[in-house]
Amino acid sequence: MSAMIPAYQRIADDIAGLIHSGRIAAGSRLPSVRELAAQRNVSIATAVGALRALEFRELVEARPRSGYFARLPRLTTPEPPISRPPARMRSVKVSDIIAQMFSAASTRAPDAVPLGAAFPDPELLPTQSLQRATARLARTTPRLISGYGTLEGSLRLRRWIVARYLRSSTAIDVSELLITNGGMEALQLALHAVCAPGDAVAVESPCYFGFLQLLETLNLKACEIPTHPRSGLSVEALERVLTSPTGRTIKACLLCPTHSNPLGATMPDADKAALVELCRRRNVALIEDDLYGELQYTERRPLPLRHFDPHGEVMLVSAFSKTLAPGARVGFIAAGKHTERVRALKFAASVSTAPLMQEALADVLDGSLYDRHLRRLRAACEQQVQQAMRCILESFPDGTRIVQPSGGFLLWVQLPEGADTLDLYRRAATEGVEFAPGPLFSSRGAFGDSLRLNCGHRITPRIEGAFRRLGKLARTA
């Protein structure tokens, strides 16, 4: 895998890790171009490329006649502890909390700052390229509008997905891939394929509220599993639940193992491999949401669960909504051994996915544009998360804890004991600030002292002001 990454990127990633860990202190001078080339046994051009990549990521700055200097120390902040949910199967009623939020949202200012919904700044997306591709295809290939398209979806797009995962040494067969109407349809198909009403599904704690909405809609129960804010779901805790008498009702494990929503946690490779083996051994279906998998802060993409699955038992789900085009509503599922069941469900649910958007995405993805775009997007997300953390540390109450994500653009924040983020949500709505309150992310209404913030937008003075207003409101809770 490392051979596919250019040498200058590997060097840049190594130095970035030293800066983030504090081993290269902010303000420290980096080796000169010649020194770096000699240290790493690479050419001058490679050393220049590494330093420029770090400069582009705003981790170093070039000072005329002085050299390169480290810019961005990694903030050190207390983080929330590992969650400790009870090992119980619980019916999901997250729709009640959403109804409360809709009621509160009726009082919000019309120009509310979007710190709630998880999507990147439109200015960070190659929207014009997608517009041009869509317009050209609509003009030259009218059948993409006049017909339904195939059940499986665009062959060109599916082949691109297969090739993309091969870059992470992860094999997917093009015949098991289906293009879906966004990632949520793919997740629904996966759950429907392996669960019946009344079954239980193991999830992270906290977990994405969209997962909980799906469980509620399908009349499935949730079993929340202890989850570490940086290393994700505890495989040991899941095994204890699965081997208990009540564990027999768990038919699937649904999780986001890479840059999870809402924590931003990434499971270590050893834990991912152990999870795949545990679910195989206990005959529990494993559904992987890889939506944020491309948004790591280094060039090395974390391996998906599917990488550790030689038998096609992991159902891998993702979409282009966080990296390319939220409005396109194009996702996909690699269903493995469940492919025929998922195909039948897809046909019954929606027949096919809009072919025009699939082919437009395939056009944009073909070539080097996407890789260049991802490098810019990752760098922007990392910078915006760091800027948001500084605002929080300056404005929120003493004792606030923040999870430092390994990728993506979400921040999980825990306020001091006694905070009520649903009440804070209602008060913030009148101040023109939106966020996602913690109880949304639990089947049991837990995490009332926590909230998720979207840092996908550039930290303008308006956004910075919203963080500060939210912090002031949190101080007066």
Q: Number of helix segments?
A: 16
Question: Taking all residues together, what is the mean pLDDT?
Answer: 92
Proportion in helices: 40-55%
Going by helix content, strand content and strand pairing, the class is alpha/beta
- Please provide the count of β strands: 17
Largest sheet, in brief, is: 9 strands, mixed
- Radius of gyration, in Å, reads 23 Å
- Terminal CA distance reads 50 Å
Low-confidence region ranges:
none
Beta-strand residue fraction: 5-15%
Shape: globular
Short account of what is shown:
It contains 16 helices and 17 strands.
Give an overview of the whole structure.
There is one protein chain. By secondary structure, the chain is an alpha/beta fold. The protein has helices at 7-21, 33-40, 44-56, 94-105, 127-140, 143-146, 155-166, 182-194, 209-217, 235-242, 269-281, 339-349, 355-365, 369-395, 421-430, 461-475; strands at residues 60-63, 67-70, 90-91, 113-114, 177-181, 200-205, 221-228, 232-233, 250-255, 285-289, 314-319, 330-334, 401-402, 410-414, 433-434, 436-437, 450-454. The chain is built from 16 helices and 17 strands. The strands form 4 sheets. Strands 3, 5, 6, 7, 8, 9, 10, 11 and 12 form a 9-stranded mixed beta sheet that branches.
